[in-house]
Amino acid sequence: MTAKPTTDSQCLITVNGAVREFTGPTHTNALDFLRGEGLTSCKEGCAEGECGACSILVARADGEATRWTALNACLLPAAALDGQEVITAEGLGDRTRLHPVQQQMVEHGGSQCGYCTPGFVCSMAAEYYRPERATAAGAPPNEEDAADQHCGPNGFDLHALSGNLCRCTGYRPIRDAAFALGTPAVDDALAARRDQLAPAVVHTDLSRADTPTGQLGRYRRPGTLEEALQILFEEPGVLPLAGGTDWGVEVNIKGARARSLLAIDRLSELRQLDVTDTHIEIGAACTLSELERGLHGRIPLLGKLFGQFASRLIRNSATIGGNLGTGSPIGDTAPALLALDAELVLGSVTGQRVVPLADYFTGYRQTARQPGELITVIRVPLPLSGLTSFQKISKRRFDDISSVAIGYALAVQNGIITKARIGLGGVAATPLRATATEAMLEGRAWDLETIRAAAQVMGEEGTPMDDHRASAEYRKAMLESSFERFFAAQLQVAHSLKGEGK
């Protein structure tokens, strides 16, 4: 975090190599700012982060290097890019020299009406420059990849495009273009940029007249967690903002406005990932994509969750603390973390306190967090249970909201269930533990008879309701059937390991 050499009222963003000043209201998103600058490759399709037409590339820190990260410009406040580097589709190539991604899209017929194409190109470019892709090229796909064709022979992970929608070309030519990409050339400037430090995160304080009545909107990026907590203590009305994937929808769709925003997403104190003898501690401002890379499968249950959480574009921005902080009954991380017996560390100017996640949700979008407090750390106790699963029931397999979400974590010794934790989402006003089912399971044999009995108890957990995503009856049926799916999957894994002699 460094101080700007400019005045506090100035917001400077490097776009396609040129420095531009953002002077608009603080609620302005990056999409509107870029289009106002004449960079109209960014398109507004959904304004909710679901279509990817507004995808852009942002230079984000990756240790001592830089990672080109695809983000939804429609959800990202323009002020959040103060001091940062952005690439739009216009900055990737031009009419005389197309970027390799653009060239492959042309050669494989990956564009028809063209509305979604720039967003696809930016998301594809982020994957093109992903450092791990080179090592994945030529590697045999795992069974899941082989079944769903997620990963190409060149290491291209199609999940990189899970947040981009196309309604006319169809996806086969786009996939073909993605799988035809080689490695960046030696003179590729954006590839070379990865080996340098990312732009420093600057201390920002912007005030703008953004309403007809002239009220001021304020956007601040504090330099330290201590400074952020002091602001929250002194100004109870300030809104903490991390990835903005929830708040951005409120701004775009509901016209929400905040008098004062406090950006906490890049605070180093909230972005640590530590492993102790007793816990794995996750900084609340870590994005889901960063966690996926940083954990390296260390928490298998979260590993099963990541690929089903929205899309890569959303996971590149959404933070684990933000997903819990909204208090949503259908947030995907809560069921998994409930099954992991997670605890939250809440910080304020008076110190820290630890709250079990099972006690954190107090009502519909209400939590135990008090004014002036922030979620700073999510603690997952060790050792982890051996049998885990995350099941998400939704209308689409990817990039969708849960109708029901279930996290399982069971410990079994000598065929007996010694510990059972089950987290549920979408079946009550809050995420909750299936405590009745847990109690019924512990001490019982890990067999089909127990599972079928537990399924009946599970069907009575929560207070499911009818809404546009699913009926209460359907949700109950999903709870009951989920146990047999979990049991069958574990048997399949055990059989596979036995066949491999493990």
TrEMBL record:
Kindly give the InterPro entries that the UniProt entry links to this protein. Answer: 2Fe-2S-bd (IPR002888), 2Fe-2S-bd_dom_sf (IPR036884), 2Fe-2S_ferredoxin-like_sf (IPR036010), 2Fe-2S_ferredoxin-type (IPR001041), 2Fe2S_fd_BS (IPR006058), Beta-grasp_dom_sf (IPR012675), CO_DH_flav_C (IPR005107), CO_DH_flav_C_dom_sf (IPR036683)
Its EC number is: 1.17.1.4
Domain FAD-binding PCMH-type, first and last residues per copy: 208-385
Concerning Gene3D superfamilies, the annotation shows: 3.10.20.30, 3.30.465.10, [2Fe-2S]-binding domain, CO dehydrogenase flavoprotein, C-terminal domain, Uridine Diphospho-n-acetylenolpyruvylglucosamine Reductase, domain 2
Please tell me which top-level EC class this enzyme sits in.
Answer: oxidoreductase
Keyword check for Hydrolase, yes or no: no
- Keyword set for this entry? FAD, Flavoprotein, Iron, Metal-binding, Oxidoreductase
Pfam family membership, one? FAD_binding_5
Query: Which PROSITE patterns does the entry link to?
Result: 2FE2S_FER_1, 2FE2S_FER_2, FAD_PCMH
A molecular function GO annotation: xanthine dehydrogenase activity
Q: Which residues form the 2Fe-2S ferredoxin-type domain?
A: 9-92
Protein's UniProt keywords contain Flavoprotein? yes
- Supply the name of the protein: Xanthine dehydrogenase small subunit
Instruction: List the source organism.
Output: Paeniglutamicibacter sulfureus
